[in-house]
Amino acid sequence: MRLKTIFSNLALATALSAVALSAAPAFAAGKMTVSSPQDPGSWDPIDTFLVNWASVATNIYDGLVYRGPDLKIVPALATSWEELDEGKRIRFHLRENVKFHNGEDFNAEAVKFTFERLLGEEGGKGPQRSNYVAIDKVEVIDDKTVDFHLKDTDPVLMTKLAGYGAMIVPPKYIQEKGDDFFNANPVGTGPFKVTSYKPKVGIQMEAFADHWGGAPKLSELEYRFITEPSTAVAELQAGRVDLVIPPTIPISMIPTIQSDPKLDIVTTAGPTVYSLRYNTRDGITADPRVRKALILGVDRDTIIQSILGGQAEPIASLQGSLSFGFDPELKPLPYDPEAAKKLLAEAGVKPGATVQIDIRGNDATLNEVVQAISSYLQMIGITATIKPYETNVLLNDIIPQGKTGAMFQQSWGGWTFDYDNTAYSMYHTGEKWNPYDDDPKMNEMLESQRAITDRAKREIILKDIAKYAAERALEMPLYNLKAIYGINKRVKDFVPAPDSRLRLTAVSVD
């Protein structure tokens, strides 16, 4: 048997020195209020893909491992691990003396329960299971040791275990209370414990003094769900909110915030990319020539400078430069309205043809961007109508059910910083975010790279996937937006997370 220890003793010691995940040395008074643009509707880790879920729940739950703003994987509920059987088995050694918020013990059975639930019938109802299908079963070796037996190798699995569906949940609590109760009354092992959740209003937490990494500096943490960006900024200015998280703040309001001596803007490179994806099944966008023409007809560079204030980079595929699989040689299509008109004529599309663009109604910045896109399309003979939806309706009903117009907003966090997480979800047949396309060649490419652990070989395939998606013009790639936070200067030691997964244990307030 070949044994590959992932963490050497030195690396483990280094990681464990930081394993408090920026935890504070002592409990202190102080409440911080955060504005989030969306109520995810369920706090169950298997029910969501939403960044706005993770920005809250990273404080409620722990995974076996943790990835912070520096994007490095460090121990969390597992103190160490090793690969066995040529990567087909991973043994995790679990942290001792860890409690869930309800007093329940964390142990190997909790890990087994979490992943059997995720990969079973309950997990099948949500969007997370497909990220973890490489796991065949979890075997309990003893109370503090588990083996993950893998069907296939997954080069991104360790990152996936740091977030979302892999957050460890309490077996007895869920079995006794039921899934519906758990959705609204989450219990984890994280540094903050939920005390109140009011749908569409907010969620309140208090410091969990018994957290294995040490008590947070804050005594209370509140997230308010403020869907209107102007309202969120007004609350920040009034001092009723301490932090506004991405993607809420309209670019146009950045100077207003910066001019306030009590406030500041903090930005960092992020994974979030914006696109208008196409209905490739129906109407004029079923023709790839039309899809390409619409891209050529929009001056995205000008939009980035004039509307986004330069706070974004143009993209040629659904990933930013921090993503594994990013190809700097793949360039965005240029703005060329004459070429766009020629392609439309070749496709038999006459001036005055219409397209509907579906967007999230509360995304003020993208709304402004799409208005500009509509104007550009008008200049090449296409009349665009913009249809705003309440975010959860668009994401849970319209897109997955294939009920969109010709184009629809797809904002994607790419939280693994690996193109697989984006591309598989967007392009593989049967995935929730691919309601229209069925491409055997694309499926084969996506599946083949998941079985490869050689990073160089995987990277080649991921770049080929990006090129193929661009050739087929499956979406209009727009831009990679920086993560923009508005913050009250009374908040101390805040580190902006590229993926908005905020761990607020080290933060304090004056």
UniProtKB/TrEMBL annotation:
<feature type="domain" description="Solute-binding protein family 5">
    <location>
        <begin position="72"/>
        <end position="432"/>
    </location>
</feature>
<keyword id="KW-0574">Periplasm</keyword>
<comment type="similarity">
    <text>Belongs to the bacterial solute-binding protein 5 family.</text>
</comment>
<dbReference type="GO" id="GO:0015833">
    <property type="term" value="P:peptide transport"/>
</dbReference>
<dbReference type="InterPro" id="IPR039424">
    <property type="entry name" value="SBP_5"/>
</dbReference>
<dbReference type="InterPro" id="IPR000914">
    <property type="entry name" value="SBP_5_dom"/>
</dbReference>
<dbReference type="InterPro" id="IPR030678">
    <property type="entry name" value="Peptide/Ni-bd"/>
</dbReference>
<dbReference type="GO" id="GO:0030288">
    <property type="term" value="C:outer membrane-bounded periplasmic space"/>
</dbReference>
<keyword id="KW-0732">Signal</keyword>
<protein>
    <submittedName>
        <fullName>Peptide/nickel transport system substrate-binding protein</fullName>
    </submittedName>
</protein>
<dbReference type="Pfam" id="PF00496">
    <property type="entry name" value="SBP_bac_5"/>
</dbReference>
<dbReference type="GO" id="GO:0043190">
    <property type="term" value="C:ATP-binding cassette (ABC) transporter complex"/>
</dbReference>
<dbReference type="GO" id="GO:1904680">
    <property type="term" value="F:peptide transmembrane transporter activity"/>
</dbReference>
<feature type="signal peptide">
    <location>
        <begin position="1"/>
        <end position="28"/>
    </location>
</feature>
